[in-house]
Amino acid sequence: MSFAEVIGQQQAVNQLASMAGSGKVPAALLLAGMEGVGKCFTAYQLAQVVNCRQSAAADACGTCPDCRQIARRVHPDVLLVEAEKNQIKIDQVREIHHYLGFAPLSGRFKVVIINDAHLLNGAAANALLKTLEEPPAQTIFLLVTHRQQLLLPTILSRCITVMFKPLSRVALKEILSRQGTGAEARLVEKAVALSGGSISRARYFLDTDNLSWRDDFLSRIGALTPESYEDVFALAEEVGRDAERIDMTLYLLETFFRDALVLTMDPAGGGQCNLFHPDLAELLQGFAAGRSATELLSLLEELNRLQSRLLFNINIRLALEALLMKLVARR
After folding, report:
1. What is the mean pLDDT of residues 254-272?
2. Would you say 300 and 262 are in contact if contact means Cβ atoms under 8 Å apart?
3. Mean pLDDT, to the nearest integer, of 92-114?
4. Which three-class secondary structure state does DSSP give residue 113?
5. DSSP secondary structure of 128-186
6. Quick check: 322 and 239 in contact, CB under 8 A?
7. For the segment 129-164, what is each residue's pLDDT rounded down to a tens digit?
């Protein structure tokens, strides 16, 4: 593998290749952007580039022993750190310190990839900061995040940021084709439209069970009326019980409200080609009827505030009840 394997992120790849080609890769890089756009994958490509034995400095050969080990994620000089129970703890940072106490075993650099770096708890973040302030020689930190605003400003100041953009529909289709999903073209089109530029969400919606769940959930949202408080309580309770789908539930609400806003702002329908849920156009039109753009923007703002509080152990059932009660109260 090499930078050529990264699809749809040419600007980020060019920035990283320029650093590698000049031999001046910073000791700490922040790979930032929405979920599912290839940040962690690209981090491994960069780890290959800086440790490749055979290729030019700006890319990796993909065939030497170091490249092959990194591709299989078994290289002794590349460490992946991920959250345990929704946080990265100080013991994990201490393990990083121990790991960096030794020179590279095989490659030229030790590379530490911290996935979802925004999940560093307070003690872990402060411990990591000390290392970022005085990084060991032959060490590169790659912090991967889709919520950089949650990182300590002092950590951000120690990193060079490389931004990753949402993937285009063309890029998403190419990635899915390379991965050989075997899905029908119609299903791929629907999953790509729903993804919002994220390959992980596109794969999620290739599952017809997940699509059926989306249809049912949004149909119930669209059917809420001022008299349907019991439905609000039932929906909020179901979401609160289904912890694995909380993020996706809020994403569906966000895209549904956004599509309704598009239809409100463009009643002639010219913007329908940009809808996340074009197959639910009739439901969206009914939901948008009688709602102002200001009202829908307010719902989106309240939903965004709810999403930003998810990491702080809020009661999702009560929070969603409050949002949906405002929704039906405004009808």
Report:
1. 81
2. no
3. 95
4. strand
5. HHHHHHSPPTTEEEEEEES-GGGS-HHHHHTSEEEE-PPPPHHHHHHHHHHHT----HH
6. no
7. 999 999 999 999 999 999 999 999 999 999 999 999
Greatest extent of the chain over all pairs of C-alpha atoms, in Å? 69
Q: Given this structure, which CATH class describes domain 207-329?
A: mainly alpha
- The DSSP code for 29 is E
Torsion sign (Cα): 178, 183, 186, 187: negative
Q: What is the pTM of this model?
A: 0.89
Which position has the token pair 């073209």? 185
> Residue 68 carries which side chain, given as an amino acid letter?
R
pLDDT tens digit sequence for 208-235 = 999 999 999 999 998 888 778 888 899 8
Amino acid at 65: P
Helix (H) or strand (E) holding 114: strand 110-114
SS3 content of the chain, % helix, strand, coil (to 5): 60, 10, 30
Give residue 164's identity as a one-letter amino acid code: F
Domain locations in the chain as residue ranges: 3-163, 207-329
Q: Which CATH superfamily is domain 3-163 in?
A: P-loop containing nucleotide triphosphate hydrolases (3.40.50.300)
